[in-house]
Specification:
It contains 11 helices and 16 strands. The protein is of the alpha/beta class and 344 residues long.
Length: 344
């Protein structure tokens, strides 16, 4: 349930409500909107029953109690009173009227490749730098990523460009190493429902970029986000990256409808990955334009200094030399949706 405080509620009154919820064994998640504080009281079914008998509506400072009807609670738009969240990560804002341009290679391959890509995307105005050190590959015989050595190169790229790093975590046992480097931890489409991984990222408190599973519904995506939020980590970015349909002419089907519909369901920022959706370079710019114009809060796009030599996803990676033009065009489309580049 959701406890909506009066506009005039004092900090002591808010704390008293929080304490009462916690004594009943549930978790209290505070969220301060433009006008009022809302407290989400989230528990299991039994705790919900005992919360209902606490008489919270009579508590000083409480305006009203509202049930949250959706299965996802902390991810719902309702818990924020219809206000979309604007996250702040390493000084960059994500959501609201900010457009995030996250760019970089599919995977870290070598020092030269990573640093060249990093410089190109930084010069093109990127908000953050992507690059995988741990790669989820369909075949166990494909390149699996440089692991810890890749993380070191990402750290160097951050140092040289000042760009925050987005990198994927696949296994909880690598969490500490990834935390050393990642400003945002990416959870790949194949791990969207890896619940222990989501829980640990939630506990770490580090911002998370959660990709939609290949066949996941929007409800399932939001339930996955709920695992992270439930641990007290409010910094979750959702990512539409194409879903599997009967169409075989391209790699996945980019579900552009997911963006406006997610905006009605959740307060969390929503970005789009046109690279993995398309699997082809020629589609990346048109899909990015469509995503930006329809109101996405950003894109995450693959860029490589020499895609023809890339060890993975070469056909879909933009050429680093083309990034500046790409960036300019996509930012024009984001302006149609009232957004401007997120930068420090
Ligand atoms: C990636 O972004 O590197 C990636 C593997 O994407 P996805 O999990 O969406 O396939
Ligand atoms: Mn890739």
């Amino acid at each position: 349930m959701m406890i909506v405080m009066e506009e005039s509620a004092t900090e002591t009154e808010v704390e008293a409500v929080v304490a009462k919820i916690e004594r009943a064994g549930a978790k209290a998640h505070r969220s301060k909107g433009a006008r009022v504080t809302v407290i989400g009281a989230i528990g299991d079914v039994e705790q919900d029953a005992s919360l209902s008998s606490l008489g919270l509506e009579a508590q000083p400072g409480v305006d009203r109690i509202v049930p949250i009807l959706k299965p996802y609670k902390l991810a719902s738009l309702q818990i924020r009173h219809g206000e979309h969240s604007v996250l702040e990560i390493a000084g960059r804002k994500i959501g609201g009227d900010h457009f995030s341009l996250i760019a970089g290679p599919c995977t870290v391959e070598s020092r030269d490749q990573m640093l060249d890509a990093a410089r190109a995307v930084a010069d093109g105005g990127a908000s953050m730098l992507r690059g995988g050190a741990y790669k989820p590959r369909t075949s166990p015989y494909s390149f699996q990523g440089l692991g810890a050595d890749g993380l070191k190169l990402l750290a160097e790229a951050r140092e040289q460009t000042g760009l925050p790093i987005v990198t994927e975590l696949m296994d909880v046992s690598d969490l500490d190493a990834v935390l050393e480097v990642a400003d945002v931890i990416q959870i790949g489409a194949r791990n969207m429902q890896n619940y222990p991984l989501l829980t640990e990222i939630g506990r770490s408190g580090r911002p998370a970029l959660l990709k939609r599973g290949l066949s996941a519904t929007l409800d399932e995506l939001l339930m996955a986000a709920e695992y992270i939020l439930k641990e007290g980590n409010p910094n979750v970015i959702l990512c539409e990256r194409g879903i599997r349909t009967f169409e075989t002419a391209y790699r996945f089907t980019l579900d552009l409808m997911a963006i406006p519909v997610l905006k009605q369901m959740t307060h969390l920022p929503v970005i789009v990955d046109p690279s993995h959706a398309a699997g082809r370079r020629d589609l990346v710019e048109p899909l990015s334009l469509a995503a930006a114009a329809i109101g996405a809060d950003g894109v995450i796009v693959e860029v490589h200094p020499n895609p023809d030599e890339a060890v993975c996803d070469g056909p879909q990676q933009l050429r680093a030399d083309d990034f500046q033009d790409y960036s300019r065009t996509v930012l024009q489309a984001s302006a149609l949706a009232g957004k401007a580049l997120s930068a420090v």
